[in-house]
Specification:
Shape: globular
CATH class of the largest domain: Alpha Beta
Distance between the termini: 24 Å
Number of domains: 2
Largest sheet: 9 strands, mixed
CATH topology of the largest domain: D-Amino Acid Oxidase, Chain A, domain 2
Strand content: 25-35%
Structural class: alpha/beta
Number of strands: 21
Helix content: 25-40%
Length: 425
């Protein structure tokens, strides 16, 4: 067993024992928790099966700082209300965690929501919800903390001429601008990795897949974390005063080992998207094609783009607590997926053809996406269209986190660290 230093007894100085926390998962959620813990003087051990932090979906996603505008299939506004606090505080909290202004990696181009002809939400309903979301955000105390001034960037319906200039209107029925912005997640990931490396209170144990967590029977009820190393060798870490389960996939299976079971069905999806760079700037709007299993384009700075089409990048979908291993596409499959993405996006956005003519490089990258619920995104009744049942659940000093969306991680991490300090510090 790989034992952690047990600073259990108060020494001659009378100082109390410093607790140690195991953080499972080294993406944006786990890394945010570990960094916030260090600011409270709490040591942590960051465990992940990947060879380095931020190797999966936290590095390779579109980076939208969500406020709820895209959840038009949730007319209750419960999803928007859940996402708004995380979105409004994302810039401030990430800047604090990485020790530099996030604005350098956050692009200020307008994001456009385009309603597809097969959308599960009618155009008028989607725009009406957008206006309601705007009212919710303006009423928040942190409204001025977003990347752009929200009051000066209200949702605005595109004119017919604007729509025709941007889209193939045989596929796209309407559209509106939103104030939501995105960050370049691979650059943000690099800043997080540097912050982790500079923090002496965080011990990184990469290449260890968590197998089980169990509670000791001693009076403290501390925890052991059983893992499988990259070479197949079992290794146990601990004891820990608390465990934070911030895994992006297989989280439910680890929760079950401590008897923490949620009744909801989980859907794990492994998706890849295209991260492209062009040899010269392209004038292509950032847009999401909604609402349902469609696609989106992020033009971060004119030359770096994110291109996604749902079905062409969906490699695996599972409802198992521990999803199966994903077979990565070979060269022929990567070419096919890339071509499908360009073709499907071009059916909606003819300007996408410009990217092909000046394409310098393209990488298919992605990771697991998990959500509580099931059903097809083409089904308006599917509960995958909601993200309101997310956040923290706990059993004793074991804490499990459903991040929900990338932009929620720092805000939830603050809440988790407060709960840990209230319990064990």
């Amino acid at each position: 067993m790989n034992a952690m230093p047990d600073q259990a007894a108060a020494g001659p100085s009378g100082r109390a024992r410093i607790p140690t926390v195991a953080v499972l998962g080294a993406g944006i959620m786990g890394s945010s928790v570990a960094l916030f813990l260090s600011r409270k003087g709490v040591r942590s051990v960051l465990l992940d099966a990947a060879p380095a932090p931020f190797s999966g979906a936290s590095r390779w996603n579109e980076g939208k700082i969500h406020l709820g505008y895209l959840y038009g299939a949730d007319p209750s506004l419960a999803t928007a209300r859940k996402l708004i606090p995380g979105g409004l505080s994302f810039r401030r909290l990430v800047s604090e965690l990485i020790g530099r202004p996030l604005e350098e990696d956050c692009w200020t181009a307008q994001d456009i929501c385009l309603i597809h002809r097969d959308s599960v939400t009618a155009s008028e309903q989607a725009f009406a919800l957008a206006r309601q979301v705007a009212e919710l955000t303006h009423a928040c105390p942190d409204a001025d903390g977003y990347v752009v001034p929200l009051a000066r960037n209200p949702p605005r319906r595109l004119s017919r001429r604007e729509l025709e200039d941007l889209c193939d209107t045989r596929s796209i029925l309407s559209g509106f601008e939103t104030p939501e912005r995105s960050v370049a997640t691979n650059r943000v990931a690099d800043h997080f990795v540097a912050a982790l490396a500079a923090c002496a209170k965080i011990e990184k144990r990469m290449g260890y897949r968590v197998h089980r967590v169990k509670q000791q029977s001693d009076k403290r009820g501390r925890w052991l974390v059983e893992t499988i190393a990259a070479d197949g060798t079992p290794e146990t870490f601990g004891p820990f005063d608390a465990v934070v389960n911030a895994l992006w996939e297989g989280r439910g299976a680890i929760d079950a080992t401590v008897g923490l079971i949620r009744a909801r069905t989980w859907t794990h999806r492994y998706r890849v998207s295209l991260f492209a760079r062009t040899s010269e700037p392209v004038d292509l709007k950032s847009a999401v094609i909604a609402v349902g299993p469609f696609g989106d384009v992020k033009n971060y700075n004119g030359r770096d783009l994110y291109l996604s089409w749902y079905h062409s990048g969906l490699l695996l979908e599972s409802h198992a607590l521990s999803p199966p291993t994903v077979a990565m596409p070979d060269e022929a499959a990567r070419i096919r997926i890339t071509e499908e993405k360009f073709a499907k996006l071009a059916e909606c956005l003819p300007g996408i053809a410009t990217v092909r003519t000046v394409l310098q490089s393209a990488k298919l990258r992605g990771g697991w996406v998990y959500a509580g619920g099931q059903g097809a995104l083409s089904d308006p009744s599917s509960d995958l269209h909601r993200r309101d049942d997310i956040g923290l659940v706990a059993k004793d000093s074991f804490f499990s986190i459903d991040t929900g969306k990338y932009s929620m991680a720092p805000w939830i991490a603050q809440e988790v660290v407060k709960a840990i300090c209230d319990r064990v510090a």
